[in-house]
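Handoff note, outgoing to incoming analyst
You'll be picking up this chain. Sequence as last confirmed:
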Amino acid sequence: MKRVLIANRGEIACRVIRAAHSLGIEAAAVYSDADEAATHVAAADASLRIGPAQAAASYLDQAAILDAAEKLGADAVHPGYGFLAENAGFARAVAERGLTWVGPEPASIEAMGDKERAKSLAEAAGVPVLKGSRRLAPEDLDDLEAQAEATGYPLLVKASAGGGGIGMRRVDSVEQLRKVVESTQSMAARSFGDGTVYLERYIARARHVEIQVFGLGDGRAFHLFERDCSTQRRFQKIIEESPAPGLPADKVAAMAEAARSLAASQNYRGAGTVEFIVDADSGDFFFLEMNTRIQVEHPVTEMVTGVDLVALQLRLARGEDLAGELGNVSKKGAAIECRLYAENPRKMFLPSPGTLDRFDTPTGEHVRFDTGVRAGDAITPFYDPMIAKLVVWGATRDEAIARALEALKATHVEGIVTNRDFLIAALDHPEFREGRVWTGFVDEHRDRLAPKAA
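Most recent structure output, in case you need it:
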C-alpha cells in the first residue's frame, strides 16, 4: 500500500491522513466545490475535485470517487465514517477496480446494515436482543397493530437501513402508530433508499453502551473495551466516555464477550462497533446494532488503550497479522470526548452555519483536539455541522471531567453559535459528575443545560 485515497472530508479525512503518514503511506484527498481550500485537502499529498457542494453529487458519487482514485494513483480506499463507509456496493466497486478496500467484507456490511438481519445474526451468536417486529414495508402494514401489540408499548419505529439516530421515532399508543410508521417509512425511503421499518421494544430509562471490536477476517476477533454514549440529543451522541460509569464489571465483561463473539461468528474483518441498549435500572443489556466502520468516537478507545485504531485498519488492509498486538491490549484511566457542533442548543439544537471568524483551540497534556477546520473556514449547510472533537484523558473519571472542562473553557469560537457552553453545563451537572447518565439526561435537564431562547 503506497497511496490511500480517503473517500471523505473534514475531521475524519484529516485523521486518516495522519494515520497514513505515520505508516509511510501517502494520502490522496477528494473535495467538493465547498471544500476546495479545506484542511484535509491541504494536508494530503494529492487531491482532486469530484463535484459540487451537494453531497449527492460529490462525496456520494461513487464513479467520481473511483475515477479520482485511478487518476491520483491510489492503490487503496479508506471510506472514513458516514457517506459511503457502510455501502456494500461501493466496497465491491473498489475491489473490482483492483484497489484495496480498507474496511470489512461487503457481505458483512450488508448483513449488519440490514437491522433485522443483524438482530437475527446476533441472536444466533448468543447475544441478547430486544423484542421486536418483522420488517414492515410500505405496502405491507396489514398486521401492523398486531405486531405492535406483540412488541409492547412504548416502542420505537426504526428504519431498517437507518443509523446514527436517523429514522427513529417513539410511539406510546396505538392511536399514534400508523401515522408515525408511515411518516418514518417516507423519511427512510428519501434518506436511505429503503422505506422498510421495524418495531422495537423501548426501554424507558436506557443507557447506550458500545464495544469496540477488531476482527482479522478469519474467525479471530478481539474487543478493545467499552464506550458509554448515553449523553445524547435527538438520539445522537454528544459526549462519549470510557469506562462506562457505574456499570458492574461483570456486565461490561459479558457485553464485551458478546460483541467479540458476534464479530468472530461473522469472520468480521477490521474495526467495528457493537452497540447495546442497557436498562439503567436492571443492568440488562440488549443488542442494538453493529456499525461496520470506524466510529466518530473512536479516539475515546485510543486514549484509554494507547492503540491507533485507524493505523490498525490500514495495517490489516496491507496484510499484517495483528493478533499478537490485539491480544495484549489493556485499558488505563478514563477518557471523555465532547463533540463541538455549530448548533444552537437554545433553539432545539438547530444547525448554525457560518464562518469561523475566531477559532482558538485548547492544548495541554492528555488533551486531543481533532478537527478539519481552522479560523476563516466556513461551516456550510451542506454537511454535518460538527466542528471538532475534544478528547481528554485522566487517571480517574473526575480528573478527566476537570480536564475536559478546562479545555472547553479554553476553546473560543466567534462568527457562529456553538454548543460549547451546553457541553460545559452537561459535564458540570451533578448527575453527570456522579455517573448517572442515560439517554434522557439532556431532555430531563434541558432547562438547566440549555434554557430556551426568549
